[in-house]
């Protein structure tokens, strides 16, 4: 297959190396093509050892038309706060293109509208396919493969053949989800990152490691946010959202101490640093980090808007979002569902083309 990968960060680099090593033709669309090598190295972490390999890329470019030309799939690994500008930029080249958002939550179905209106198809992963970290930008990466994939389509896309293609590309079993809301409402980064940052910074802590220093205060907030997401799912009575699993199920932890122990013990997450920066006053939150700009301003705020539309009580979402807005003095709504025509439960079904809504 001919693949375009948009973004040269952790995930984009790992996917590029993995796909190219399987003889797929891989183009990278990045704003920093001059920093890339054509041959990149990857270390796949496997239980009991590892697998190091070199993969040759077809093209690394900043030219969108060139990168997207004749591609079978375009994988978008960009954070939410730049997806809207990206969609406008590539809209002229989007006709019949298949875009796969990695991952798909955080407002992709709203932000990618300029491309969708040109005839593009949209898919989204419920969670990331790899845990990945760059060793050197544009040159090397390590990654660990997940055990399964869950893929959803926005209306009008064919999901079964896409799942088969994902299995070939990633060498991971792929399950088709019933609808894109199963991705939008996923209690992953939108509640995981925000719960941790809120509990850490509210108490003026500056833990070096995001997951390895996880504590019960973060787990308490996370469980509350998770409960509110499940309440949103129950409020959408006309559709099947069983695949939006509670974190109690996902992490096999039904108590605060158990969840804390589970998150702190995940080997691939242990070395991930908190989004902090050095200042003359010491370590301070890096509000330019995607952990803040994407997971608060887009992902969590979209969940809160769904709760408001459906009259679902969501005091913890409001508390966390209000804290962030007061901290950053940013009261602008990055994605306003009302402006997207979503003001009622019926509007939600119509937007996602569910419950027999008009296509």
Strand content: 15-25%
What structural class do you assign from the helix and strand content? Answer: alpha/beta
Oligomer: single chain
Radius of gyration: 20 Å
Biggest beta sheet summary: 8 strands, mixed
Low-confidence sequence ranges:
355-359
Tally the beta strands.
14
> Helix-strand pattern, N to C?
EHEEEEHEHEHHEEEEHEHHHHHEEHHHH
Measured distance between first and last alpha carbons: 30 Å
* Order of the strands making up the biggest sheet: 5-2-1-6-7-8-11-12
Shape: globular
The overall pLDDT average reads: 94
Q: In DSSP terms, counting alpha (H) and pi (I) runs of 4 or more, how many helices?
A: 15
Helix content: 25-40%
Overview of the structural elements:
With 359 residues, the protein is α/β, with parallel strands linked by helices. It is 39% helix and 20% strand. The protein contains 15 helices and 14 strands. The chain has helices spanning 10-21, 64-68, 80-90, 108-111, 113-116, 159-170, 181-184, 189-202, 216-235, 247-250, 256-264, 290-293, 295-309, 315-328, 345-351, and strands spanning 2-6, 25-29, 39-46, 49-56, 59-61, 73-76, 98-101, 121-125, 130-136, 140-145, 149-153, 174-176, 276-279, 282-285. The strands form three sheets. An eight-stranded mixed beta sheet has the order 5-2-1-6-7-8-11-12. Strands 4-3-10-9 form a four-stranded mixed beta sheet, covered by helices on one side. It has a two-stranded antiparallel sheet with strand order 13-14. Helix 8 (189-202) packs antiparallel against helix 9 (216-235), helix 8 packs across helix 13 and helix 9 (216-235) crosses helix 11 (256-264). The longest helix is centred in the middle third of the chain and has 20 residues, at 216-235. The two termini are 30 Å apart. Mean pLDDT is 94; it is low at 355-359.
């Amino acid at each position: 297959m001919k693949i375009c990968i948009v973004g040269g960060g952790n995930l984009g680099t790992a996917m590029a190396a993995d796909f190219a090593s399987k003889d797929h033709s891989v183009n990278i669309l990045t704003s920093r093509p001059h920093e890339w090598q054509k041959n990149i190295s990857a270390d796949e972490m496997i239980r009991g050892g590892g697998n190091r390999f070199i993969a040759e890329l077809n093209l690394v470019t900043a030219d969108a038309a060139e990168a997207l030309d004749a591609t079978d799939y375009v994988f978008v690994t960009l954070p939410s706060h730049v997806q809207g500008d990206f969609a406008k930029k590539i809209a002229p080249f989007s006709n019949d293109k298949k875009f796969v958002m990695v991952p798909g939550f955080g407002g992709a179905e709203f932000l990618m509208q300029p491309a969708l209106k040109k005839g593009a198809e949209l898919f989204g992963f419920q969670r990331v396919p790899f845990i990945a970290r760059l060793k050197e930008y544009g040159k090397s990466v390590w990654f660990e493969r997940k055990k399964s994939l869950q893929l959803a389509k926005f209306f009008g896309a064919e999901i079964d053949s896409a799942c088969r293609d994902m299995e070939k590309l990633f060498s991971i079993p792929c399950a088709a989800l019933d609808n894109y809301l199963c991705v939008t409402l996923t209690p992953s980064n939108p509640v995981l990152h925000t719960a941790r940052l809120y509990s850490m910074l509210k108490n003026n802590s500056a833990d070096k490691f995001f997951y390895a220093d996880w504590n019960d205060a973060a787990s308490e907030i996370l469980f509350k946010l998770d409960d509110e997401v499940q309440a949103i799912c129950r409020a959408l009575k006309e559709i099947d959202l069983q695949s939006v699993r509670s974190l109690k199920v996902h992490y096999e932890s039904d108590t605060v101490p158990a969840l804390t122990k589970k998150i702190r013990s995940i080997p691939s997450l242990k070395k991930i640093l908190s989004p902090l920066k050095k200042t003359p006053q010491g370590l301070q939150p890096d509000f330019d980090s995607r952990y803040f700009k994407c997971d608060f301003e887009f992902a969590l705020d979209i969940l809160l808007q769904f709760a408001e539309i459906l009259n679902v009580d969501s005091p913890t979402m409001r508390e966390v979002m209000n804290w962030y807005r007061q901290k950053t003095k940013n009261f602008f709504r990055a994605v306003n569902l009302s402006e997207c025509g979503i003001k009622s439960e019926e509007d939600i079904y119509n937007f996602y083309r569910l419950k027999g809504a008009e296509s």
